[in-house]
Amino acid sequence: xxxxxxTIAPLxxxxxxxxxxxxxxxxxxxxxWDVRVPVRSNAEALEALEGGAASLLLHARxxxxxxxxxxxxxxxxxxxxxxxxxxxxxxxxxxxxxxxxARLAFHMDPLSAFALAGLSAGPVAAHVAxxxxxxxxxxxxxxxxxxxxxxxxxxxxxxxxxxxxxxxMAAAGLAYARALEAAGTPLQTAFGAIALGLAVDGEIxxxxxxxxxxxxxxxxxxxxxxxxxRARVEARGSRRMLTALDPxxxxxxxxxxxxxxxxxxxxxxxxxAFTDARGPPxxxxxxxxxxxxxxxxxxxxxxxxxxxxAGAWAIEALTDRLARExxxxxxxxxxxxxxxxxxxxxxxxxxxxxxRRAREAAVADGSAPIVGVSLFPDPEPGAVEVDEVxxxxxxxxxxxxxxxxxxxxxxxxxxxxxxELVSQDLEP
Length: 428
Hints:
The protein has 15 helices and ten strands.
């Protein structure tokens, strides 16, 4: 078991699992999940859709040209635009003017952008308010869309625990719900406009339980606010689990993460490419990443059953534990003034830093071996194709009135990186 995650017992009984009156279902039960694929160009978008993708994940750059020839009602688009989220959301809405029924995912998330960058151009609270006002403006034309992404992935990618990731997700959701209400959006509508973002990795049982715990936490928050809403969850394959030394072994990790996302009830699932630790993916890496999901969905039938883990004593016990621990993390963040204040004060960063160090120590002492690096390394793993086009880099976003806010950034890490440097003298 990875450092910082709950210990999994060898055997569970009915006394270990809480009674559950109903399964934890996707927002659209019986529909399987959305195979969501990141694209950087129109050629990649058309390639992905022809290859079986259900929706596209875009950054802020060239939205109109990337979507040329794409029918958004058949193939919706999702955004990942950092501080540029409000401007990108307006451009996507403009591109979708002829597709009123498109189920878009605008997914503005200024709090994750702030945590990652460590700086905001103006108060981070102003960026949250701008995202909420943009959502309120666009909601009437796109009532089925999700507008804000309450994500804990930035904590995960920085080395945080599953409970910390859930706590950040919940605190972000609360901040966005408050901002939407302040922008004039009724609470019921506000909760429906927020999606949850989490990571899934090779720890299959923990990843499944984490997605299920997220639904429990969100349902409890909504009930406390007097509303009832079924969570929409976007899960992304972890990048911290990827290896550069033997990238081919990443195909196993991505398959495990994809299985966990499917069995955990993700509404949309994004898998990185197996070459991402080396560089942007070429055509083969993009195809393999896409096909992992298609095989899990179409050949394995994992989308045919809602909440397939329901009733499994180990999963139910882990779900309950993570829900409680994630709730406690959220309470700690809220007690400190909310997520933005927890980032600015450094209290959250220090807890995540401690979890990261524990993970790195476990890799270094061999108690958390990494296949292809510290366990069964391949002396000649073979070359892989990477693209020469650089990855999208988030910008600072618009400058808003007021003093800048700053925090110690939650920088992404890779668990294998230090071991790879020792064994192969790779450049960081």
